[in-house]
Design brief:
Length: 519
Amino acid sequence: MEPSIGLAGRLTRVLRRPRMRLPHLRPTRMTWVWLAGVGLAALVGLLLAAGIYPVLGVLIALVVGPVLLFRPRIGIWAVLAGTLAAAGVIELYFPALSVVKWGLALVAFALPLVAAFELFYGRAARKGAVYRPPQPFLRWGMMFFIVFLVSTVANWNGGMDALVGFKGYFQVWGVMLVFSYINYSEREAGRLMKFLLVLAAVQVPFVLHQFLVLVPMRTGIADAAKGIVAVDIVAGTFGGSMKGGGRSSSLALLDVMAIALVAAQWRVGAYSTKKALWYGVMCMLPIALCEAKIIILLLPVTFFLLFRDRVLKEPLRFLVGGLGTMALVGLIFVAYSALPGAKGQREGSVSDDMVDSVAYNFGKTGYGNAVLNRTSVYPFWIKEHAHSDEIWHALIGHGPGETNSTSTLMDPTLANKRYAGYAIGLTGISSLLWEVGLLGTMAILLMLLAAYRQAVLLEAKWRGTKQWPLIKTAEISVVLYAVNLLHNNYFVSDISFQTLLFLVLGYLVAITNIKRDSP
């Protein structure tokens, strides 16, 4: 038993114990990051509460921009996700935040510069990376840029018009160019095309909300008598306006591209029949609800290109398959008319709607309230340029942006001055003809043709691999995109529609740069 040491002994023992050390309180780098994050969150909350959206957009760009720029791979995915899954949603649901679209365009502009710097002076240069010459379709893209500059200078209408025209065409071209500087693995490249399925899945909840909530709201808009169709607002993440229309054809293009990917994967056995059908239903639902009639053309073209070799061997089976595809399209529209509230969302029956569609696409009826339609716009362009004093305009156009009749930043354009009410820029091809002439239009068409030929070569090179169905999807997608140039004019101004093309072309650049011996 320990003897008692008394009060003095206890005090001595306590004093001899090692002193307690306080923790090291000097702020670390992570501490500053957290403090900055808290302060930034508070500032963002105040800006949101005050509704000062432009300042908020600039603040986000200043914080996020450097991260995206100096990590090109992250920057690419940010632009792809932002333009395809967020830009249209912001336009429709949060129009005050439309400045975000400009931020995405600025990141896309800067990405090639940062990637080039990395190639020549950064870590990539130290690892022995080399410059690769551009693919043939990129060269045609450069040719289009030259024609664009010539047309801008020759038809000079001021710096603001030139800026708006440049932004309209080239807002995401940097996404395609940056792939020339970055080395992608097969797996990384494959994710680009598989992203189509992710996007297709994202469309479903937005399409359901737009069909069940927004479409009934639009049926009561007085402007419906002026040509607004209620169901046009069903465009998924591609955006639109409650008092205007939505980009349902872009939604249809995305979903048909995703269907091509699913069918290609099913053909090589990568997807089971059950899995392919599940994905197919997921992709067809938005198409059915948005009632995009362009699928009457897109679906047969997709299946023909995918099964072309079998078509040539068994033409009778292809005929049966083609009839089955058309029957499927018919069932889609019939199913749409049976949905609750469908009768209140259209002016007539499905058959009447189809007859009207044929009239304003191929007949003499103008599109909506316009004088011209998707067919008559081309003879009209020829008529207006079949004069000796218009040859120069026929070759290089009247200047970028001249078919734009809605921009408040530009001076009165050709579309709302000389040809008000005609809809001279109704399609992508007609817009190109009027703005950059025959030379610019041919440069774009040859760019698409070169991309298609490149995909065909890659298809043979990668046959029998996991990349084959992805390359086949890219090949089909280029053709589908070209078809859409005859249907809408989004190529000259819409950031989401343009990104769909440069996602595919970027994948072709990435997979071309991967070294693989031909089989």
